[in-house]
Amino acid sequence: MTPIYLEYTFEVTPKDPGADILIAQLGEAGFESFVENETGVVAYIQKHEAFPDADEIEDYSTILSVVDLMESKLFKVSYTAIEIEQVNWNEEWEKHFEPIEVDGRCAVRAPFHDKTDVEYDIVIEPKMSFGTGHHETTHMMIKHLLKMDVTNKKTLDMGSGTGVLAILAEMLGAHPIDAIDIDNWCYLNAVENAERNGMKHITALEGDASLLKGKKYDLIIANINRNILLQDIPTYANCLTNNGVLLLSGFYTEDIPLISEKCNEHSLYFISNFERNNWVACKFEKRN
Predict the structure, then answer these.
(1) Ranges 22-36, 118-132, 242-256: which has the least confidence
(2) What global pTM score does this model have?
């Protein structure tokens, strides 16, 4: 049976960084895919996920009750919602996906874009997965990796989405690499993208931090969201070798003290960070 989707079209003022904040919060609410436009975001969620017991929807706002941005005094957010049949996701993102370049060294592009003349040319077909490099958090994680020597580092990409960060890590010399995501679509997409880029040392896994029991890594990359990071930082710390590096993103500048405090409790110490439109990506080091 073809799933019925709900399409929410949001207008956000100011759009920057409102649209990015909205996407993050909608993702936590269960929305599966997003397309940015000139005025905001179009977001999709399966009807049975949003309203499992409803044949007819009387109030489309119910699913948005956990989206804090809707009540923010700093942003004006309005929306319309309709029911649609299965979306051609490839067609949707192909309309909007432009290749990006980070620090003149790494490019992230789709299969239909021309090859770029950079050191690290990554081909990604994101479909419904998160991580094309366009979002600030992915972009900054790429910047961190480009500045590091990860040769022969055993690496974890947690919340791997498309697998783009795991792919770059292998291109930079890291191995072996585990790429873990709780979402089945992301898991399958990471497998596909690793194969597309000729990667040999990436093992994609479907699940959460419970999969990390007994594992050790020299480098952990976790681009998720603040609440999940705070929950899982103790697990990451247990999995890191001494002097191992933890890269964290998926939260805002004002969250740095809270994240750093949790890290310090587990012998993880702040080294540096990048900031982009109020999003941050922080580097921590394990010191026993």
Answers:
(1) 118-132
(2) 0.74
**Domain range list for the chain:** 5-87, 96-286
Topology (CATH) of 96-286:
Rossmann fold (3.40.50)
Q: Tell me whether residue 203 is annotated as binding.
A: no
Q: Are 205 and 211 in contact (CB under 8 A)?
A: yes
The tens digit of pLDDT for each residue in 213-222 reads: 999 999 999 9
Does 138 belong to an annotated binding site?
yes
Do the annotations mark residue 62 as ligand-binding?
no
Summarize pLDDT for 172-230 with one digit per residue, the tens.
999 999 999 988 878 988 999 999 999 999 999 999 999 999 999 999 999 988 888 99
> Has 181 been labeled as part of a binding site?
yes
